[in-house]
Specification:
232 residues; Spore Coat Polysaccharide Biosynthesis Protein SpsA, Chain A; two-stranded antiparallel ribbon
Amino acid sequence: MKINAFIFARGGSKGLPGKNIKPLGNKPLLQYSIEIAKKCPSIAGVYVSTDDDAIANVAEKNGATVIRRPAELAGDTSPEWLAWRHAIEWVEKAEGHFDGFVSLPATSPLRSVEDVENAISKRIQAEADICISVTPASRSPFFNMVKFDEAGYVKLVNEPSRQVIRRQDAPAVYDITTVVYATTSQFILNNYGLFSGKVTSIIVPKERAVDIDDIFDFYMAEILLKEAHHEW
């Protein structure tokens, strides 16, 4: 099975402008994802889909193949699933068919090679359509997450079947992370979302599951990198 890795990095981030190539430590954020992809023994090719010249330049300097993403697939409301399809069609037209598709968002720079390889293996072993990455959630919809009802009062997001007094008694819940998505090109081309088929997962510890959306996430990634003694 030929497996390719893709990094989808558009230029128009509002939460943290320019985040995909913002320097983290001694290199652009995007570079972390490219380097991990190139170190994974299961991955044959590394591609960066972008609409931005500066991002494309960083990608090419680090040995990734650039896929120019159309403007209509790079807006704030553009479904990334369609960008995934565009990238698959681009590669298959340019280089021929491939089976495995791995998405490694630039916003998760702390992932490991092991995380990526585990996701690839887990999807195959579980006979699933896609493997996502999750991490233990800080809050639980069964214990300390609430929503407003029609009268304006608050109630638990999910009412458990039994009384939950301690957080430890609540069912275990997880946050979806952007560490890794492992699937197949056929699943993406024939479906319309992550949960369109059989979904399995790997659990990633919180220290590798940071997803950079704003400056506070970025500061957290900097702190974790320093504590892990990464090179700066």
